[in-house]
């Protein structure tokens, strides 16, 4: 193993746009990149994790035809590796063994090819490096599909360390790991700690790591510390593109980068852009380049991720025309503005659908929004249709065929609210969007999604819910950011920011009288966030604990005063239980039938927030706290 | 450890109805059972796996308030264990350690309590038995939430075998394992093989094992072999009730039983019934009881599971009135008949919603069905509403506010089909079912669900899809079974079995002319089943391979002749690709927004068939096969 301590090596990070489930297409992209790299004198070309098959592909891992094709694609890359070291991700197969589900043995693997040969680590059984740490939390399901180095050591009866060795190429010794292998804080074993004590030139981490806001700061701290521990350069190559788990759509920002042996991030690829980063890396441990100052800016990142993810999802679905139900409120305004960033003026259609409960003010705001965005606009009143439904069903008498058990059905006020919401989405938007040649959007935000403050087959309908991972306050912030920065002019009318949030489905929700939704923003944003987003999710027990201790505002990060909203403890508890019941009750039922959600944060609804329909649970301790606070009458 | 080889021990299997997410309620049930058992002289009382918290509860495992309550409930059982050995399932907590996701350390654990003490296995670190084999396939997510004995051995640097020991009570030595621990065929380690070589009196397997049709035959073979290997009695205690993973609802049949040391199943609890089985089990290895002949009968099991699961799901949702859109076809007829088994005549409302495309024959069948079922019936025509929509939207001209980019929208034939389907569900059924005081059903079958032959917000709507795990042929079989056996009279009219399956949404689907759905039953049933249900799912590559080899019918288990449906290879391939594109394309999008599905078989859609929206994939080899078959013109 001739390690050239006094030379540099030309390294290229291929921040590749991986198309999930399309091994042949990805391989074509990679083969071109290999040829170019060789021409450019690159010695080491690195692709991301699972660059051939894609990563979030669900149970497609169970199709042997797919696995065989992935394997053949990997062989094509191997055969193209004359005079260059190519590192890439693929499924590693052992057709003679099986996984613990009885299916063929699969590894999430890092392949190293050079001169038409694959090289594995040290004296291991495979000509690839299996992933050691398999994430099995949040949206990750690695251990559902893959065997890992730890199981392999157990099966072979050898110490794990004996399988964690560098890969020796002709001129280079590479410590290769995959994604989670570097995020080792909570694991009993650390692959990089084992490798750190061995002799190698460069460390490579290939990843397929979804974007979430502010994640790169954490990643930078983790990888910087790893590079420092390794005392050698560390190369991080991540995917761009989108991949999904059905209910939840993830963007991948790439942000591939290089760390020197002191832990400085010295090169960084732009986020969300496929492309290559090439650098002559000194192998003698010398410093190279200048450390990069990583800046995080939540709303700008969210703006970028939403536009990117929405555009890519549309491309994937073959959609290029979008209909947005525009109510005059902030949610639909932000959604419309996002689409106008992606589509031309004649590809975005805003439809305002007033009933007798809609204010002239919100109708005017919707129209103004369309004017500002220079997109298509139509007003489609729903009053006639709703009246027909009320006439037909409002006094329907049902009985058995012989006339027994006659009963008159009656549509209550709240039923009529839902009739309107369904009329808008399932009748008007569904038909109009088809006739317009595209799809319609779901404009629900995360607060509404949490408590199911939406109508099933009504405003919860749509092909994609692209702001459903944003709390109401974040929707406002994004709207302001788009006006100030993305568009640089107030395309979203000021009135959308100031009008009372309201569904406008009854006279009790009359915005002209300042009446609207029962949600108290931003208090409920803060409350719901604590149920949904923290690593340890809170329940009414913790909330009541904090309320009693007088620390609720501080614990929730709420700038206002809870006492300003609820004059008595009884009112506070009633509100708490009202929304908790909805979050855990109808909210779950509605989320099961909700559109896919574009994730931009930790714990988006769907695959990162797995739910069972069980109804609302209150702990015994909550009941005791409540009794102590309100007395037996509660 | 005084093992009384010449005595018997009174054992009680508590086949308990576990309510998921309700530890206090389950504990109350258990405390009553403990008191009764002591009174009845029972020495060993065994509850199922996770009998305190429930099992399929999603990410509720992330709530520490919930974990604390589960722990307190376990202590309450311990304190009630005077003069009796109580075995039960609960989450085992180690608050000083963490899981690999950074959250508090959790085990899926078997607890053994006696005289107010918990006893763990041998010299292990815990006073409970952790599960060793964590299933992480199909609907199971154990390794998402729990640490296991294998990781524990790795962490402690000890051989796994040192942690797999019997639990010693005052008079009894128990080999305790949990569910999957006995299903060890595909694992590198076998807990029962390790235990078999040690000294103990009885083996206990506590389970929370969902029902699927014909599963008990497999379970019987597995457990019989385990008992034979152990050469000692084996007690299997399983839960009854329902639990769900959001999209997929599972029934639990219990079927708890006892095996003697020769592997004979000698006692079996009735399926789907909570209750206790008590037996004096000889500890000297003597035979006891007579072996039971387990009979499997698919359609009877499915009938039982669907009625049970539907009834329990309704109870859980607090629903006691159901509206069924009754088309006159077999699917809605079977659904209506299932509900009539559960609800009274005035709690089931059939609604027929004809448009101008509906045949008098199917309307009469719907009415006849209601008459036979003696339930409520209403006819709600949708013609006026559809006409209003066509009038309002059919010629809508949209433009921007300044009048630019004007375009006339046009509702095509197929759009009009969907307008009708949505009008029925989102307008009529949604409102009528609310006014009637309940919910409406989704009547889609598995063939329709596979290829998305349903309208979103139309016939795919509903609170539960209870026959969506049945292929069309199975729906017919269930209908016949209900007529012949469950009702013992032809409540489902003969015409429902003979009418051409049709959505009746256009003149091209006129059943009076024998026209209807484009699906060819049972060929497409057989084809789709091979894409969805086998352990190794097939793709068009395998299908075309079989077609070329002339083995398609045999491989699909199709009794007919494929050549009878497709006169040319080109027609066969066009049909194959049409449905594969839908299965992998729009079908996925629709399933994401589909109602919960009641699972009765392996690989129900939802949590047991995880999907990504990626569009249809065809392998290179498929393309080559197709080229060879059809020539370059394809």
* Count of distinct structural domains of chain A: 3
Under CATH, the homologous superfamily of the largest domain in chain A reads: Carbon-nitrogen hydrolase
Structural class assignment of chain A: alpha/beta
Counting DSSP H or I runs of 4 or more residues, the number of helices of chain A is 20
The CATH topology label of the largest domain in chain A is: Nitrilase/N-carbamoyl-D-aminoacid amidohydrolase
Question: What quaternary form is this?
Answer: homodimer
Largest sheet descriptor of chain A: 7 strands, mixed
State the low-pLDDT regions of chain A, or none. Answer: none
CATH architecture of the largest domain in chain A: 4-Layer Sandwich
Mean pLDDT of chain A: 95
Overview of the molecule:
Two copies of one chain form a homodimer. Chain A is of the alpha/beta class and 634 residues long. Chain A has three domains: 8-289, 4-Layer Sandwich (Nitrilase/N-carbamoyl-D-aminoacid amidohydrolase), CATH 3.60.110.10; 301-504, 3-Layer(aba) Sandwich (Rossmann fold); 520-634, no CATH class. Helix content of chain A is 37%, strand content 17%. Chain A is built from 20 helices and 22 strands. In chain A, the strands form five sheets. In chain A, strands 1, 2, 3, 4, 5, 6 and 15 form a seven-stranded mixed sheet that branches. Chain A has a six-stranded mixed sheet with strand order 7-8-9-10-13-14. Chain A has a four-stranded parallel sheet with strand order 18-17-16-21, with helices on both faces. In chain A, helix 1 (23-39) packs parallel to helix 2 (64-79) and helix 7 (298-317) crosses helix 13 (472-486). The longest helix of chain A is centred in the C-terminal third of the chain and has 24 residues, at 413-436. At the A-B interface, helix 2, helix 4, helix 9, strand 18 and helix 10 of A face helix 2, helix 4, helix 9, strand 18 and helix 10 of B. Strand 19 of chain A pairs antiparallel with strand 18 (376-379) of chain B, so a sheet runs across the interface.
């Amino acid at each position: 193993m001739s390690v050239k301590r006094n030379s540099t090596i030309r390294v290229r990070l291929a921040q590749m746009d991986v198309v999930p489930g399309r091994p042949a297409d990805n391989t074509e992209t990679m083969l071109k990149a290999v040829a170019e790299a060789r021409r450019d004198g690159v010695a080491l070309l690195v692709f991301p994790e699972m660059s051939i098959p894609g990563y979030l592909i669900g149970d497609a891992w169970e199709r042997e035809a797919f696995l065989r094709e992935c394997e053949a694609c990997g062989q094509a890359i191997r055969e193209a590796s004359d005079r260059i070291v190519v590192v890439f991700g693929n499924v590693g197969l052992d057709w003679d063994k099986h996984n613990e589900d009885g299916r063929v043995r699969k590894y999430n693997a890092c392949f190293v090819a050079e001169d038409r040969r694959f090289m594995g680590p040290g004296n291991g059984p495979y000509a690839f490096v299996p992933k050691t740490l398999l994430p099995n939390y949040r949206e990750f399901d690695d251990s559902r599909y893959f065997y890992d180095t730890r199981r392999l050591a157990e099966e072979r009866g050898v110490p794990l360390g004996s399988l964690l060795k560098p890969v020796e190429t002709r001129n280079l010794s590479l410590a290769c790991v995959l994604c989670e292998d570097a995020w080792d804080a909570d694991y009993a074993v650390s692959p990089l700690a084992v490798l750190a004590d061995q002799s190698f030139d460069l460390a490579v981490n290939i990843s397929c790591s979804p974007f979430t806001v502010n994640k790169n700061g954490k990643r930078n701290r983790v990888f910087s510390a790893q590079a420092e521990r390794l005392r050698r350069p560390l190369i991080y190559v991540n995917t761009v593109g989108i991949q999904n788990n059905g209910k939840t759509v993830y963007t991948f920002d790439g942000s591939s980068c290089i760390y020197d042996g002191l832990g400085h991030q010295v090169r960084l690829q732009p986020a969300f852009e496929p492309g290559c980063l090439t650098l002559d890396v000194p192998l003698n441990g010398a410093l190279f380049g200048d450390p990069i100052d990583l800046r995080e800016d939540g709303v700008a990142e969210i703006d970028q991720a939403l536009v990117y993810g929405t555009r890519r999802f549309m491309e994937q679905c073959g959609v290029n025309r979008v209909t947005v139900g525009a109510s005059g409120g902030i949610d639909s305004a932000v959604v419309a503005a996002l689409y106008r960033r992606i589509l031309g003026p004649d590809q975005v259609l805003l439809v305002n659908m007033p009933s007798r409960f809609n204010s002239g003010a919100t109708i005017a705001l919707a129209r103004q929004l369309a004017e500002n965005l220079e997109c298509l606009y139509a007003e489609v009143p729903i009053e006639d249709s709703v009246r027909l439904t009320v006439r037909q069903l409002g006094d329907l008498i049902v009985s058995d065929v012989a006339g027994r058990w006659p009963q008159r059905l009656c549509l209550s006020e709240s039923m009529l609210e839902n009739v309107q919401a369904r009329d808008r989405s399932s009748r008007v938007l569904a038909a109009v969007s088809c006739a317009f040649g595209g799809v319609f959007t779901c404009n629900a935000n995360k607060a509404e999604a949490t408590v199911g403050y939406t109508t099933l087959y009504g405003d919860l309908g749509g092909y994609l819910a692209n702001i459903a991972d944003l709390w109401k306050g974040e929707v406002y912030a994004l709207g302001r950011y788009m006006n100030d920065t993305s568009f640089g002019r107030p395309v979203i009318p000021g009135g959308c920011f100031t009008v009372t949030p309201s569904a406008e489905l009854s006279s009790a929700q009359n915005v002209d009288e300042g009446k609207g939704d029962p949600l108290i923003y931003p208090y409920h944003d803060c409350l719901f966030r604590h149920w949904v987003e923290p690593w340890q999710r809170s329940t009414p027990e913790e909330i009541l604990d904090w309320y009693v201790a007088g620390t609720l505002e501080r614990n929730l990060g709420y700038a206002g005063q809870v006492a300003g909203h609820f004059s008595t403890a009884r009112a506070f508890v009633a509100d708490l239980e009202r929304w908790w019941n909805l979050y855990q009750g109808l909210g779950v039922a509605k989320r099961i039938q909700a559109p896919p959600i574009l994730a931009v944060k930790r714990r988006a609804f769907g695959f990162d927030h797995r739910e069972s329909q069980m109804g609302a649970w209150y702990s015994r301790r909550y009941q005791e706290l409540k009794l102590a606070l309100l007395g037996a009458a509660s």
